[in-house]
Inverse folding.
């Protein structure tokens, strides 16, 4: 059995322990402050006797530390140290998520049905929809709870007391239940280390959200991760202010003007391309008419094929690309079954699909090889 020292001492950064089991790449200690991957949260990082701990997993009542090709033996006494910045960041995030989920549960009755706290991303899933405006309100409430510096307590209630408590839990837990109480905001079963007061979370920021399995998935960050995200946004905004001679109030207007201008220019370019293509098509004739262009948007490509089909007695096609990177193709015929040609193209390494009247796809061949293949 491994004593989970991190539960009682979440702020402890180093420890002494004895190796009680091991194999070539793993060791089990009589006690540890390394939190394993559990409850949706990634494992702690750190070192044992200077050897990097690459993963931490739990198996029953044992905590397994992965250390590739370690030199340890059963009975060895070792010194371990966690990456405290990484641990504290996870504590900030997990405690902030509890406040967020607690508020959602109280306001809407939704359950937290999925939680992921990884190295680069934190998400929480709820079994019901939440509007954009409601999410903004919840974000404000969470940050108010942080500023109030409420006490956070982790404890194991006895079975009789547990039966009287109204607490959140994603699953039924057998045995002792560890609860995390955030004063006035949430009471939830949880195995992870938490900060001792909400003020240590610093801040919470919703990054984005998406519909998910009939409910919603929310991407959020807390603490130093939220600060780093906001700082990066600030740096990007400052760059845009300089490029566009804009400020916070006028930035969106400047970008919208650029977007509208870009749409107009794209429309003009499409018209020029279409007119030039029509001129080229007017001079085309033959059994199979194939055009090869370096660049062309798919709608114009399809329009050109439809025009060529009226002039070709066999195949009409437009290939976009070059001999080096391959060609995106659209082919059609007024008289022949295009699926037979598709099979031929596929047999020469092409990809695609379509109907008996028109096919499209991609082929990595030289222009002359394509002409020979089709003719």
């Amino acid at each position: 059995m491994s004593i989970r020292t991190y539960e009682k001492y979440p702020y402890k950064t180093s420890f002494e322990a004895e190796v009680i089991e091991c194999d070539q790449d793993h060791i089990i200690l009589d006690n540890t402050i390394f939190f394993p991957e559990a409850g949706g949260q990634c494992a702690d990082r750190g070192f044992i006797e200077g050897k990097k701990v690459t993963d931490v997993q739990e198996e029953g009542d044992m905590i397994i530390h992965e250390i590739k090709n370690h030199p340890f033996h059963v009975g060895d006494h070792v010194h371990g140290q966690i990456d405290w910045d990484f641990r504290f960041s996870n504590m900030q995030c997990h405690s902030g998520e509890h406040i967020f989920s607690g508020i959602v549960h109280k306001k809407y009755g939704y359950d937290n049905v999925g939680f992921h706290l990884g190295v680069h991303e934190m998400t929480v899933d709820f079994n019901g929809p939440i509007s954009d405006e409601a999410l903004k309100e919840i974000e404000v409430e969470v940050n108010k709870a942080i500023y109030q510096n409420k006490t956070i307590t982790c404890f194991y209630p006895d079975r009789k007391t547990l039966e009287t408590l109204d607490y959140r839990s994603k699953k039924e837990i057998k045995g002792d239940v560890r609860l995390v109480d955030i004063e006035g905001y949430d009471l939830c079963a949880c195995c992870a280390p938490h900060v001792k007061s909400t003020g240590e979370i610093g801040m919470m920021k919703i990054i984005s959200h998406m519909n998910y399995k009939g409910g919603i998935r929310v991407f959020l960050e807390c603490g130093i991760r939220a600060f780093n995200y906001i700082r990066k946004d600030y740096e990007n905004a400052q760059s845009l202010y300089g490029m566009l001679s804009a400020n916070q109030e006028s930035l969106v207007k400047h970008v919208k003007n650029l977007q509208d201008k870009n749409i107009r220019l794209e429309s003009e370019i499409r018209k020029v391309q279409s007119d030039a293509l029509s001129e080229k098509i007017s001079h085309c004739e033959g059994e199979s008419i194939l055009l090869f262009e370096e660049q062309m948007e798919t709608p114009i490509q399809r329009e050109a094929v439809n025009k060529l089909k009226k002039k070709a007695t066999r195949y009409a096609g437009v290939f976009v690309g070059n001999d080096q990177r391959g060609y995106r193709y659209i082919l059609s015929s007024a008289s022949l079954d295009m699926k037979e040609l598709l099979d031929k193209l596929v047999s020469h390494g092409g990809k695609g699909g379509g109907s008996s009247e028109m096919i499209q796809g991609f082929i990595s061949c030289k222009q002359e090889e394509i002409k020979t293949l089709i003719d």
